[in-house]
Amino acid sequence: MIPEICTKTYTLNTGAKIPAIGLGTWKSTDEECYNAVKTALENGYTHIDTARIYGNEESVGKAINDYLKESGISRDKLFITTKLWCSECKEPEKALRESLNRLNLEYIDLYLTHWPVAIPKADVLMPINDEGKRLVIPYDEWNYIDTYKGMQKLVELGLTKAIGVSNYNIPKLKKILNDKEIKIKPVCNQVEMHPSLPQIELIEFCKENNILIQCYSPLGSTGAPILENEILQNISKKNNISPACLAISWAVARGTVVLPKSVSSKRIIDNIKIVQLDENTVKELESIGIENPQRVGNPPWDVKINLFEDSEVY
Ligand SMILES: NC(=O)C1=CN([C@@H]2O[C@H](COP(=O)(O)OP(=O)(O)OC[C@H]3O[C@@H](n4cnc5c(N)ncnc54)[C@H](OP(=O)(O)O)[C@@H]3O)[C@@H](O)[C@H]2O)C=CC1
Ligand SMILES: O=C1Nc2ccccc2C1=O
Q: Which residues of this UniProt protein bind substrate (predicted)?
């Protein structure tokens, strides 16, 4: 199989198009991030994923603006996402205006609420108490539903084209979808997803409700541990493609957006090239996580992302 540059897009429930592959930017230094975003845009990517908490919005924005200037391409050809951090949950407009300032952009295409967790505002983004425990705002005082409600006006203000959620399970999505005060449905749910965490029920639920899934940590996050999996390695050898190409192609074959992160030019260029997988291969890779689901992300709170329950404890 010969991998080719992926030009696939999906249509969001707003009618806007989103490219199937986006560059992830978590855990890259300013310089790495600038070079990664610039390389990506020069090599076929039109979709970049960042977040307030990554601390790199300025370098992401500089790379985007330099690229737009040098290429003559117009802003509307790119799809840019950033995320509302949990300690800014009560003032999303201020938070987004600050993100736009750092990005040096007039609008973004997608603003996500990063985690279904509310954190008190403090001089740091992740405040802890004297015993070292992360602080959260009690559920009854403020929760993810209040946060999402507040984000709706950002679309009306033209600061973002769309809003969505991240790290939501089915019960949390149901609460958002059933709330009478919520008029703007999330366009997507960005969650950890890879062959070791295929999240089949969540995919089904989101499909039924026209919410697009975006896969984060598609290679298993730092060090790409998913690529060591024996089944994945065997299938990639059989098809003469790299394990990373297989994992990324798998995500696209399942109808999800995928956000591989890399700061290596060669990998960035490789990661946007995919192959078409048949249904059997998709299922064979799903079997890895059906038998032994593994969550690789290590959030500083207990996220029951794939359980059929809502909970005041995250
Ligand atoms: N909404 C949320 O809560 C979250 C969102 N995200 C988003 O998703 C993105 C991707 O997830 P992330 O956790 O960063 O991890 P990924 O699964 O994308 O893996 C990144 C790791 O894989 C390596 N890698 C990249 N390409 C290849 C390749 N072709 N072959 C071998 N190794 C490779 C990278 O190294 P190198 O850079 O050296 O190439 C890095 O160590 C994030 O960057 C972020 O944008 C991530 C986590 C949570
Ligand atoms: O984007 C993120 N990557 C993470 C990895 C571990 C814990 C939290 C996060 C993020 O919010």
A: 114
